[in-house]
Each structure stands twice: as structure tokens, then as C-alpha cells.
Amino acid sequence: MSHAASQTHATATQTTPHRLLYFFVAFVLLMFFGLIYAWSLFVDPLEAEFGWDRSATSVVFTLSIITFCAGMLVAGALEERTSPRTVMLITAACLGLGLIASAFTESLPFIYATYGVLVGAGVGLGTDVVMSVTLKWFPDKQGLASGAMLMGFGGGTMLLSPVVTTMLGALGWRMTFGALGAVFVVLVGAGAFIMKLPTPEYVRPLLEKARQNATVAAVDMTGSQMVRTPTFWVFMVYLMLVTCGGLALISQAVPAAMELLMGAGAGAGASGAAAAGAGASAALSEAEALMLATAAMGSVSAMNGLGRLINGFIWDKFGYRVCLTWIAVAFAAGMLCCAFAMMGGNFPLLVAGFMLLGLMYGGNMCSMSAMVGTFFGPKYYGINYAIATCQMIPAAIVGPQILALSQMGSGSYLGAFWVFFGVAIAALAVSFFIKPPKAA
């Protein structure tokens, strides 16, 4: 081994514990940020107290996703002008204020502003800065590092939802919001003093190796350069189609499962529903049904996290084409399972559909991150990833509303599942037109 190679090896060896430490901190923070997807746990308590309808409460989730994307854009810009620590302290302030203020909700505009705007923006700020800083430590493993970190974001709902459900039962929704706000202030504030960027000396040899292996773009593109490539826009269409279905399910997972468990699934006649198990489900108490529905949502979260890890491995090992294909196929299969489950009152089949949809949504989010780093280079990852995340805005507007309006209009989510099956087929078709950008 040459002297230069020995130095490089020594540097990597000395720094490796630090990069794993930053990964661990990022994973924990992203796991808590993933609680933004647990909004459906608060839907029933708020609707019961204030008499709001499902379409109105769905707007809270939609707003949180829109401001999540806006927060990421702001974080991408701030990172270039300030420091990761500053952005994370702003994140702690937004999340603490937003959650604690949500505890004082008395009207829809108030919860729109507190949870929808402040919490959504805080999660966006934190997610972007944590992802951007940590991935700079892993220029040689963009796909796997993205997937592993995002597994925390996706799996947070599964791991923490039972805790939140218990808190809701013991403390009520107001105290739960307040307690979560305090936890976020402490956790994100501590992370702000741990996370830091790697040195150029550490990054350089890893980045050179990645570029030699063609696992990272040979040229780093700025945001303005990225948005001028056909690759970016075709990929954005694909992401929007898949995200639309994923966010729809996540926003309404608990109510959709409750519909089936309480024997309200449309499409199954009285005798057919009883034969399929819906009649038996109706014997459940509301508390028992809620626990099962929460567990069903947890399966979405578990597969959401696992899908991110699996897709990161597939992206690095087999390339983007295989990733995009299996995501679209899982999307279509998941919607079919959900539709047939509603028609037959079959709860295990609904859970299977939820799991497939969790896998595809998690894989989709990982693909977005891996695409930014692999196709357009890691240098401008923060702002480029934030730009790509904006595809969630139209998806968050359209997806949950289709599901909510379907439920309000027909009393069932069945019709929306068939609509999203068509969306999945469209995503599969679009995937064949995606290819890496040509070097300038």
C-alpha cells in the first residue's frame, strides 16, 4: 500500500466512528420527524370534540405537507448562508411552538396555522438539514445511506404511534400536543450541537472513488441547472403520481381501517360481509377496533421504513430502473388489495394492501433522495433535494382529498382505491421514460 493510500485509509479509519455517530443521531431525529405522518391519530378526537368533517381535517395534513416542502426549500437556502446548527435551532423553535400551540386549538384556522404550518415547516427544515449534513459523510453510499436514514423517518410512525395513542388515552389530545412539543425542543436542540459537516480531506477520496465507479454524477449541478434537464421533470411526474397514492393512504389509514372493522365497507352486501368477516368485525368495541386500526397504520409505517432501506440497497446494487419498476408494481398491487378488502370486508387483505403501499411509498421517497445525489451530484444536495420534494405539494393536495371526498360522497373509501389503481398504472408507464441526464 502506498504512503498516500495509507494516509487515506488512516483518515477514513479515524473518522468512521464519527460518521456512524452522525448517522445514528440523524436516524433518531428523522424517526421523530416522521411523526408528521401520525396526524390521523388526532383526527377522531378533534372531530369528536368540534364536529368537524373529514374534508376539513384532511386540510391540516395537506397544509403540513405543503409547508414541509416549503421548509425544505428554506433550509436548503439557509444552509448555504448560515450553519446546520442555526437551521436546527430554528427547527426546534418551530416544532415546539407549533405543537404546544396546537394544544390550545379552538378552531380550524388555528390548527391549520399551528400544526399545518408551523409543525409542517419545522419538520421540513429539520429533515433537509439532517439529510444534507449526514449524506455529505457518505458520498460513496448515496442510495444505502439515504434509504437507511429515511427508514427512520418512515418507521417513526410505527415505533412512536403506540406511545402517542397511549398518551391520547391517558392525557387527552391537548396534553399530548404539549408533551410532544417539549420533547421536540429538547431532542432537536441537542442534535443541533452534535451534527456537523465533514472536512474536505475526509470527503475527497470517497467522492473520487464513487465517481470512478459511476455511482455519483461526474458533474455537480446547481438547482437551476437541474430543473433545466428533461430527466428532472419526467422524474417529478413519476414521483407525484406515486406520492399522491402514498399520502392519501397515510392521511386516512386509521379511518379507512375503522370503516372496514366497524362493518361499514361499501361493496359488500350484508350476508357477503358477514361471510367475509365484516359481520364479526362489527362485534368489536370501538376501542378494540381503534387499536386494530392503529396497528394497521403501524404496518404502513413499518413497511414505509423497510421500503426505504430495501430501495436504497436496490438502487446501489441494481440501478434506478429496477427501483422504479417495483415501486409502481407494488403501488398497483396494494390498491387492488385495498379495493378487494373493502368489497369483501377482509381486514387481513386490507393490512396486506397497506403493507404494499407502505413499501412503495418508502421506496419512492428513497428514490427521490438517491436520484438527487446520483443524477445531479452531492455538492448541492440540500437545495436540490428540497426542490425535488416540492412534488409532494400537488400530491398532498390531490391525494388525501380524493380519498376524503370519496368517503364523504359514498360513505366508503372503495371508489378512491380504484382511482389510485389507475394512477399506479400511469406511474409504471412514466417510469420507462426516465434516464440519467446527459453531461453538459
UniProtKB/TrEMBL annotation:
<feature type="domain" description="Major facilitator superfamily (MFS) profile">
    <location>
        <begin position="19"/>
        <end position="439"/>
    </location>
</feature>
<keyword id="KW-0812">Transmembrane</keyword>
<dbReference type="GO" id="GO:0022857">
    <property type="term" value="F:transmembrane transporter activity"/>
</dbReference>
<feature type="transmembrane region" description="Helical">
    <location>
        <begin position="110"/>
        <end position="135"/>
    </location>
</feature>
<feature type="transmembrane region" description="Helical">
    <location>
        <begin position="322"/>
        <end position="343"/>
    </location>
</feature>
<feature type="transmembrane region" description="Helical">
    <location>
        <begin position="59"/>
        <end position="78"/>
    </location>
</feature>
<keyword id="KW-1133">Transmembrane helix</keyword>
<feature type="transmembrane region" description="Helical">
    <location>
        <begin position="415"/>
        <end position="434"/>
    </location>
</feature>
<feature type="transmembrane region" description="Helical">
    <location>
        <begin position="147"/>
        <end position="171"/>
    </location>
</feature>
<dbReference type="InterPro" id="IPR036259">
    <property type="entry name" value="MFS_trans_sf"/>
</dbReference>
<feature type="transmembrane region" description="Helical">
    <location>
        <begin position="20"/>
        <end position="39"/>
    </location>
</feature>
<dbReference type="InterPro" id="IPR020846">
    <property type="entry name" value="MFS_dom"/>
</dbReference>
<protein>
    <submittedName>
        <fullName>MFS transporter</fullName>
    </submittedName>
</protein>
<feature type="transmembrane region" description="Helical">
    <location>
        <begin position="231"/>
        <end position="254"/>
    </location>
</feature>
<keyword id="KW-0472">Membrane</keyword>
<dbReference type="Pfam" id="PF07690">
    <property type="entry name" value="MFS_1"/>
</dbReference>
<feature type="transmembrane region" description="Helical">
    <location>
        <begin position="383"/>
        <end position="403"/>
    </location>
</feature>
<dbReference type="InterPro" id="IPR050327">
    <property type="entry name" value="Proton-linked_MCT"/>
</dbReference>
<dbReference type="InterPro" id="IPR011701">
    <property type="entry name" value="MFS"/>
</dbReference>
<feature type="transmembrane region" description="Helical">
    <location>
        <begin position="289"/>
        <end position="310"/>
    </location>
</feature>
<feature type="transmembrane region" description="Helical">
    <location>
        <begin position="177"/>
        <end position="195"/>
    </location>
</feature>
<dbReference type="GO" id="GO:0005886">
    <property type="term" value="C:plasma membrane"/>
</dbReference>
<feature type="transmembrane region" description="Helical">
    <location>
        <begin position="87"/>
        <end position="104"/>
    </location>
</feature>
<feature type="transmembrane region" description="Helical">
    <location>
        <begin position="349"/>
        <end position="376"/>
    </location>
</feature>
